[in-house]
């Protein structure tokens, strides 16, 4: 009897191991197609021929689905995703969290370029050759590498490692040195004209628009209390302390509201906010966990609330205000920004999408103290204040919706400011080096190599340059 039970256990374990074994590409392709998704939207499921992995594609973002059994996968947030088949064995739907979503179209084409950084002939290994960025009609000055002080060999090594997969899911790298775009490379299906989602790097644009609104007198001061801007709300957890929250507290992520992405027990859970009817009311309804101006806590509801204040005071949609006062002066004509802070934006996060060259313009604007081609677009005082340290968020210095970061490179510390977002989005400004570096990527909900690329292959060039290097880190 014991031998029989042992045999059954061995067979069961063998079947479990078989179910979890790596699938072949044809097996994975059985799940491909366009499916229903939340809020009457859709997602696509695609099989990567390079990695032999399944991905859920939601907009521009890719989320790995790891096989754990027959027709059973696990997504990056550890949710179980189960696919269902019909009587003929064809995949027809998937379910997650007790919700089932139908397959709408199985004949979806996924181009080969989406899976590889560069299409390379196997008979001819990739060899990087530098090409200066072309001058276009976008108004961005261009130059070449030789007089820039950047190291061509380092940049060639970086590009090669992106192409060979050492640094996966990097979509673009652009470098401005001394006011000119001198390096511009795109990977996978992305190109110069591709709009790229900024995710939380959008917050730094909200900061710029706040400064413009104050300069125009639309908002009186960063010290203005927040709650009076929303007289129609009957707030939960209202208190004298909540009434003290200012616009500045929102910009520095020091609102004191119980909203902290680093705390899973925080009531201001970002996912809960995403599916609420009104993100601003959700945010202002939260209980207070700290004093305003105290502990820095990363909370996406803070800049969303600032954006809504700008709309109300300007009496126009935030996107129109941005188009008139920020994008038009910079010559930014192609963008996508749906600022609707409610459940309909649960999968798009009210994020801005821009071409990387236009992201680089924004970085150059801040490097030049708010000036663009002789015009003061954002006041110099606002730029200085925005890039000054006001708080500490997740152990990193924080300005007005800008991260104040340093990177240590071969014993030298470089100080910069970053607009950054999930997936590896970076608009980084390095004043001492007169440098702007833009990186876009698709490493969503996982560690991104963007900072390593900036440090190891860009800033490292200045370690031996007299007068251009950063400071030695304190011992």
Features:
single chain, 475 residues, alpha+beta, Lipocalin, Beta-lactamase, 8-stranded antiparallel beta barrel, 8-stranded antiparallel β-sheet, 12 helices, 21 strands, 26% helix, 23% strand, globular, disordered N terminus
Task: Describe it.
The chain is globular. It has helices spanning 2-20, 25-29, 152-163, 202-215, 247-251, 270-274, 279-285, 301-314, 318-330, 356-367, 380-386, 450-458, and strands spanning 33-36, 42-48, 53-58, 61-69, 72-74, 80-85, 91-96, 99-105, 170-177, 180-186, 196-197, 335-337, 352-354, 371-372, 375-376, 391-393, 396-398, 403-409, 412-421, 425-430, 435-441. It contains twelve helices and 21 strands. Among the domains are: 17-110, Lipocalin, CATH 2.40.128; 196-401, 3-Layer(aba) Sandwich (Beta-lactamase). β7 and β8 form a beta hairpin. It is 26% helix and 23% strand. It starts with a helix and ends in a 17-residue tail after the last helix. The chain is α+β, with helices and mostly antiparallel strands and 475 residues long. The chain has an eight-stranded antiparallel barrel with strand order 1-2-3-4-5-6-7-8. An eight-stranded antiparallel sheet has the order 10-9-21-20-19-18-17-16.
Task: Tell me the layout of helices and strands.
Elements (H helix, E strand, L loop, with lengths): L1 H19 L4 H5 L3 E4 L5 E7 L4 E6 L2 E9 L2 E3 L5 E6 L5 E6 L2 E7 L46 H12 L6 E8 L2 E7 L9 E2 L4 H14 L31 H5 L18 H5 L4 H7 L15 H14 L3 H13 L4 E3 L14 E3 L1 H12 L3 E2 L2 E2 L3 H7 L4 E3 L2 E3 L4 E7 L2 E10 L3 E6 L4 E7 L8 H9 L17
Antiparallel strand pairs: 1-2, 1-8, 2-3, 3-4, 4-5, 5-6, 6-7, 7-8, 9-10, 9-21, 11-13, 12-13, 14-15, 16-17, 17-18, 18-19, 19-20, 20-21
